[in-house]
Amino acid sequence: MAVETIIVGAGGRGYGYGKFGVEYPRELDVVGVAEPDELRRERAVTAHDIAPDMIFNDWQSLIASGEKKSATILNCTMDRLHFESTMKMLEAGYDVLLEKPMSPVLYENIKLVQRAEEQGRLLQVCHVLRYSPFWQKLREVIDSGVLGRIVSVTHAENLVYWHMAHSFVRGQWRNEATSGPMLLSKCCHDFDILYWLLRKKVISLSSFGSLTHFRPENAPIDAPKRCTDGCPAAETCKYEATKLYVSDKNDWPYNAVTIIPSAAARLEELKTGWYGRCVYHCDNDVVDHQVVNMELEDGTSVTLTMNGQGDEECRTMRYDGTQATLYGKFSSSGNEIRIHHHLTGKIENIPVVDRDHSGHGGGDFGIVRSFVNAVNGTPDDSITTARESLESHLLAFAAEESRHNKTLINMEEYRQRVEQEARNFQF
């Protein structure tokens, strides 16, 4: 029997996860939606044939209805809404699949985990990479021992230049006060996958980074506040908004401007909306590049780099072991795992077969299926508990503390300190 769920927040992520119910109706049945935007709400209603009494304008209306409407909730609200909404959902008896990050506020993440444990409810965070065939194959290779003992790891999260501008300069994750630090928003995936692959905790870390490029002093001469106001640098600027967004296409990032699939509608939205702003005249303050240096409990050294000026959207990695070196690339243009054997000089290409066409290399559907299985009492080996997901968030916040204070962080002391502070913190 299918697990019933309600989508709370029917934007890009909520709509994407909801597609699992359309393709696999015997596993997941989307019976309700809570979404303030009328167009997005109606899109979900149509896609899932939702009954009128299960349509809500926001998560507060759903909770205020006074009765439990389904077994589960897919909480895909904006980051700042995660804490309060999820706390209420857990208290109301729902099991929750929560979009990452849990919260942009350090102590709220810890409180969410503590509350889920106290209530005995399932809280699973959407760390979708674990469920992608690429990362599962990479873990299989590492576990096989073919690399020998892993000594060092270099991992890079490379944002293509326009994605950096779209999400972290013009878009919803541009400002730390409203969305938390860049490293949490974009790289808690990466911290989680490194923890999952290497199976060792970080004992110390340091971090460096800054906002270097997307600043007013780097704007072209006489550039207006909006690209639609006649910029003299329009022809030579790679961030010029009309070139990036004026299209009839109905996929991301075009539908982030407006879900109306019309070039005219998107041009009109650019005149007043976020995405029409000059990238050098936004209210952004998150970093556009950052590096984190980590030492694991077994002595392995790991470097995570976030680069916001990439030519291609991809994650790249290098694992140096005592027997072989592995190079990997995770990209929509093609995945690659290549092993260079030290003794023989042989180069071995490892095939990766995607299981489905959902986002993050199949990970989006994978995480939903994992959640459904856990609700049904048959959790899989890849399931991310809220307590385990918390580790990735703590690493991101610790890295920010290191970056701001220019200090080396002892992670065991940090974990103990913030866990206790969260228990004493009044909300």
Number of helices: 15
- CATH architecture descriptor of the largest domain: 2-Layer Sandwich
Count the strands?
15
Number of domains: 3
CATH superfamily of the largest domain: Dihydrodipicolinate Reductase, domain 2
**Which structural class matches the secondary elements?**
alpha/beta
Order of helices and strands: EHEHEHEHEHEHEHHHEHHHEEEEEEHHEH
CATH topology of the largest domain: Dihydrodipicolinate Reductase, domain 2
**Rg, nearest Å:** 22 Å
Specify the biggest β-sheet: 9 strands, mixed
Which word captures the global form? globular
Mean pLDDT: 94
Strand content: 15-25%
Biggest sheet, spatial arrangement of strands: 14-13-12-11-7-10-9-8-15
The level of helicity is 25-40%
Low-confidence stretches: none
CATH class term of the largest domain: Alpha Beta
Would you kindly provide a written description of the structure presented here, covering whatever features stand out?
- The strands form two sheets. This protein has a nine-stranded mixed sheet. Strands 3-2-1-4-5-6 form a six-stranded parallel sheet, with helices on both faces.
- It is of the alpha/beta class.
- It folds into three domains: 127 residues, NAD(P)-binding Rossmann-like Domain (Rossmann fold), CATH 3.40.50; 225 residues, Dihydrodipicolinate Reductase, domain 2; 61 residues, no CATH class.
- Helix 1 crosses helix 13 and helix 5 crosses helix 15.
Summarize the structure.
37% of the residues lie in helices and 22% in strands.
